[in-house]
What does this fold into?
Amino acid sequence: MSNWLRHIGILEWIAIIDGAADEAVKSAVKDHLACCTECEEFLDEIKAVRSKLLDSAFQVRVANTPGVEHSQRALEMALTELRKEKPAPASVEDRLAAVMAVITPICGAGGASRVAASARRRIGGSLHKVVPAERWPEFLQYVSSTTALLCGDTAAQMVWVAGME
Amino acid sequence: MEGRLSVGPRLVLAAAGAHIACVVLLGVLRIAGFGYPLRVAGPAVLLAFSVLGYGIALILSRQIAGEYANSAPMRLAWLAFAADSVLWIFGHIASNSLLYTFVVDKPVSGLLMHAAVVPADLCLLIGILSMWVGFHRAGLGFRVHWVDVVWMVLIVSAMAGILTFRGQLTEAASPYPGVHALQQAGLSLVALAAAASLVQRRFAQELGHGRLALALQFVAAHALGRCLLVLVEAVVRSQGPPPPEFQIFAGACRAAAHWSIAVAAAYLAAIPVHAAQQIRHLKRRQGMAPGARPVST
It folds into this structure.
């Protein structure tokens, strides 16, 4: 059975939360989360708890920092937290992978690759080169409109949302 | 997705299985000598299953047509399949033994059935050809293989042969001359639809796995199954009256072929439902506060 079909096990969750998961586990979890609402909801709960813990820890650290350095330390900590939590902008490869991940279950692997190849041709790009970041919206528009022709408007909307993530 | 009929492919396949099981069971009971007590209940159950199958196909096909606001050929295809389903509901009612046992004569029943089935077959052909055009317009480079062309020629030639020797056709002895023409027109349309559906099978193979490919395969199975069944039945009838076991087999195959369009619609109708779930899932992820975004995943 494919990894994305299997729910995430408790040991995998623990490894992910502890930051001890290897790349294979991370990749499998990422693929599964792209398709499974149930695990996504569970992840949301974990995130909410984690966020509360981070806030509480931050407040405790600020409260326990006395004297003149108080404001400076608070600012440093806030900046550190922001740097740590702010996600990096998704690369074109990641976005393309996300789009292919949502198209493949409905159009098949052959259909997904044909849709992507067709969109590459329509923006005048090479079949084997990465789509330039500035042309991503145009590329995504073609992928989405081709998906609409094959699978309908809701599927096309899904592709657009996945590609703009 | 509110207000939509939500019938998954598994449920439709289960209903199709139940229909086929009923066909086999009633056939076996008839061979065992229990046919007379079931002369009303049996056809009524089979009619209910047939109407259920095409009723599901009708509702889902209309829903699917609504999804293709930007693709006129695909919208036309699924509206044609919806019309095919409506007409087949009338066709099943007209051909059910309850009608010709209690209401009208069998030749009248045959006339009514063919009057419904011929336009239904025309709708099927229009639907398959429209899907073909829709795929062509998508510009994905699908190609028709020469093997498909050979099979198309074989299917059409075989049906032409059957029509030439129409003595084996069920309505050959009908007192209504129009029924012969209707049956011939219907069978010609089925053969053309089956031949055209081979292209859909090729598209499905090139798509690989996925719900769309499954839907295409089941539409092709609907057209091909019905056409092959007509050809096999004609060959068997040419050898004399078909044995009861063959009638059970043919009835089961016919039920499977008829349900295929409902299964196809169920697979395709599941796509917007799945897509809407994915959109909710993606939007929830996109709408998360930065502080809540996990680092490790």
About this structure: The two ends of chain A are 28 Å apart (CA to CA).
